[in-house]
C-alpha cells in the first residue's frame, strides 16, 4: 500500500530526515519520503506486516503527529496557527530580550562598582528566562527529539548554545561575578524564532498561491454521468473536478489526457508516456515523446502521467489507499 500522510510538528529538514530514518526501520516499510516544506510523508508498506495505526504510533513515539488525510486547506490552517504561535513568542523574545541586553550593555560600556554590576547582571538573567525557557521552549523540545532520532540540526545547535550561556552565566553570578552572557542566549533564540517565522510565512504564501492556481484551472476527470442527467455527448461520461472524485469511483482516460490521480486499471490497455519531459519531437507533434513507451494492462497500479494515442479509453478505479 502506498499513501500520503500529513505530518504535524516538522520544523526543519533535520526533523524530516530523522523521522524518515525512524519510519524506514519499521518492518514492512518498502520506501518512505518525508518532506518538511509540505509537512507530508509518502509511505509504501506491506499491509500484511504493518497497519496505518502502527505507522501513527511510530510517528507519535518520535514526537510528531500523523494526519490521515493531507489537504492543502488543512496545511494552510496549520501553518496559520504556527505563524500566530511564532509571532507571539517572537514578540515576547524581542521585548524581554531588549531588557536583558540593556543591563549587559551598561556593564560592558561603563565602569560600574562591582555590586551594581552584579545586580544588573542578575536583572539581565531574569529577563532572559522567559526568552530561553518559554519563547524558546519549542527549540529545546525539538533539540531533544533530534537527539532521540539521531538527526541533529539547527535546533540542537541553538539549544546547546543558549542553555550553555545561561548555565555559565548563572555559575558566574553564584560566584559573585558580573561577567555573564545572558544576552547571547536571548539573541540566539530570537534570531531562530525570526527565521522560523519567515519560513512559515513563505511556506503558507507558496501553498496559498498553488491552491489558487489549482482553483483557477482545476484538474478534471471523466466519470459516469448520473442517471438523472440527459445523455451527454461524450458517450455517457461527464467531466468533473478531481476533488469530486471519491475513492472507489470509476474514471475514464481519453487519448492524450493526463492521468490526474492514482488508481487501479480495471479495463482497457494502451501505450502510455511515463515521463512528462518534452523531447525534440514534441516541438512538431505537441507530444512529450515517451522514453520509453509502455503498455499498461487491466489491473495495473499507479498509471503513468500521460496517456498515449492507441487502444483507448482506459477505465480505472480510484484507489482508497492512493488519494490523488
Folded structure, characterized:
There is one protein chain. The protein is α+β, with helices and mostly antiparallel strands and about 325 residues long. It has 8 helices and 12 strands. It has helices at about 15-25, 50-60, 70-110, 115-135, 135-150, 155-175, 180-215, 280-285, and strands spanning about 1-10, 30-35, 40-45, 65, 220-225, 235-240, 250-255, 265, 270-275, 295, 305, 315-320. A 4-stranded antiparallel sheet has the order 2-3-1-4. It is elongated and about 95 Å long. It starts with a strand and ends in a 6-residue tail after the last strand.
Shape: elongated
Residue runs with pLDDT of under 50 for 5 or more positions: 275-314, 319-324
Count of separate DSSP helical elements: 8
Query: Taking all residues together, what is the mean pLDDT?
Result: 77
Q: Tell me about the biggest sheet? A: 4 strands, antiparallel
* Total number of beta strands: 12
Q: Which strand order do you get reading across the main beta sheet?
A: 2-3-1-4
Task: Quote the distance from N terminus to C terminus.
Answer: 14 Å
SSE class? alpha+beta
User: Roughly what fraction of the amino acids lie in strands?
Assistant: 15-25%
Q: How helix-rich are the residues, as a percent range?
A: 40-55%
Radius of gyration: 28 Å
* Strand/helix succession: EHEEHEHHHHHEEEEEHEEE
Amino acid at each position: 500500500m502506498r499513501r500520503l500522510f500529513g505530518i504535524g510538528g516538522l520544523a526543519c529538514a533535520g526533523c524530516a530526515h530523522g523521522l524518515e530514518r525512524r519510519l524506514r526501520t519499521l518492518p514492512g516499510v518498502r520506501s518512505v519520503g518525508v518532506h518538511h516544506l509540505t509537512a507530508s510523508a509518502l509511505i509504501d508498506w506491506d499491509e500484511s506486516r504493518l497497519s496505518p495505526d502502527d505507522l501513527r504510533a511510530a510517528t507519535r513515539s518520535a514526537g510528531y503527529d500523523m494526519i490521515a488525510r493531507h489537504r492543502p486547506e488543512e496545511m494552510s490552517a496549520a501553518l496559520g496557527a504556527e505563524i500566530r504561535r511564532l509571532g507571539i513568542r517572537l514578540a515576547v523574545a524581542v521585548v524581554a530580550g531588549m531588557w536583558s541586553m540593556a543591563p549587559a550593555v551598561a556593564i560592558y560600556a561603563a565602569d560600574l562598582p562591582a555590586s551594581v554590576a552584579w545586580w544588573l547582571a542578575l536583572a539581565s538573567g531574569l529577563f532572559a528566562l522567559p526568552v530561553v525557557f518559554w519563547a524558546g521552549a519549542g527549540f529545546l523540545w525539538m533539540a531533544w527529539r533530534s537527539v532521540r532520532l539521531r538527526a541533529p540540526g539547527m535546533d540542537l545547535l541553538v539549544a546547546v548554545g543558549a542553555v550553555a550561556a545561561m548555565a555559565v552565566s548563572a555559575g558566574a553570578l553564584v560566584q559573585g561575578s558580573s561577567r555573564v552572557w545572558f544576552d547571547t542566549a536571548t539573541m540566539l533564540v530570537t534570531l531562530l524564532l525570526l527565521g522560523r517565522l519567515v519560513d512559515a510565512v513563505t511556506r503558507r504564501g507558496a501553498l496559498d498561491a498553488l491552491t489558487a492556481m489549482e482553483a483557477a484551472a482545476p484538474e478534471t476527470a471523466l466519470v459516469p454521468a448520473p442517471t438523472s442527467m440527459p445523455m451527454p455527448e461524450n458517450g455517457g461520461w461527464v467531466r468533473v473536478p478531481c476533488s469530486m472524485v471519491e475513492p472507489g469511483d470509476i474514471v475514464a482516460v481519453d487519448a492524450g489526457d493526463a492521468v490526474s490521480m492514482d488508481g487501479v486499471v480495471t479495463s482497457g490497455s494502451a501505450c502510455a508516456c511515463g515521463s512528462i519531459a518534452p523531447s525534440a519531437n514534441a516541438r512538431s507533434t505537441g507530444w512529450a515523446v515517451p522514453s520509453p513507451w509502455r503498455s499498461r494492462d487491466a489491473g495495473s497500479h499507479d498509471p503513468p502521467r500521460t496517456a498515449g494515442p492507441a487502444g483507448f479509453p482506459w477505465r480505472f478505479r480510484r484507489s482508497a489507499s492512493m488519494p490523488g
